[in-house]
Design goal:
elongated; two-stranded antiparallel sheet; alpha+beta; 4 helices; single chain; Chitinase A, domain 3; 8 strands
Amino acid sequence: MPYKLVYSIVLFSLMLACKSPEARRPVQSATGSFIKKSADRNKKIYDQEKNYIEKIMANDSTTDYISSENGFWYYYNTKDSTSTQNPQVGDLVKFSYNIKDFNGNVIISKEENGVQQYKVDQSNQDLISGVREGIKLMKVGETVTFLFPSYKAFGYYGIEEKLGTNIPVQSTITLHSIEQSN
């Protein structure tokens, strides 16, 4: 008889133990606040850089600056009014460019870069987005100086031992040739 009682208690406790497991609740929940703070910080940086660039342009009354739809400003050093061809997607362009800070200090010279070849919007070449977008506004033989906020240049990363983080730059680009794609 004691065995039947023991077996009954064990069987009964096994039946009670067979309930579905409950999910554990997270100790900490992510609310996306880091991303929101990062976006807010980047907007403040851009606004500061934009104000800085606008002051530079306001102090230079001899130059006609143009605002691009892509978030940077530029002016023509040499303009070609006869050519009508701009680089299109897939065209192979040859160009030279430099990178300077707004004090005129050369960060990367045209000689260091040499003549670059770039297949428009189809190359994984290490060009800053401002240069890639600026080239599409140019015609062969033109030289244009672009004023890039840091997010169009080297942004948070900068250039090791040459340029700090979140620093706007200027770049003078000369477009040498355009080979149209078929």
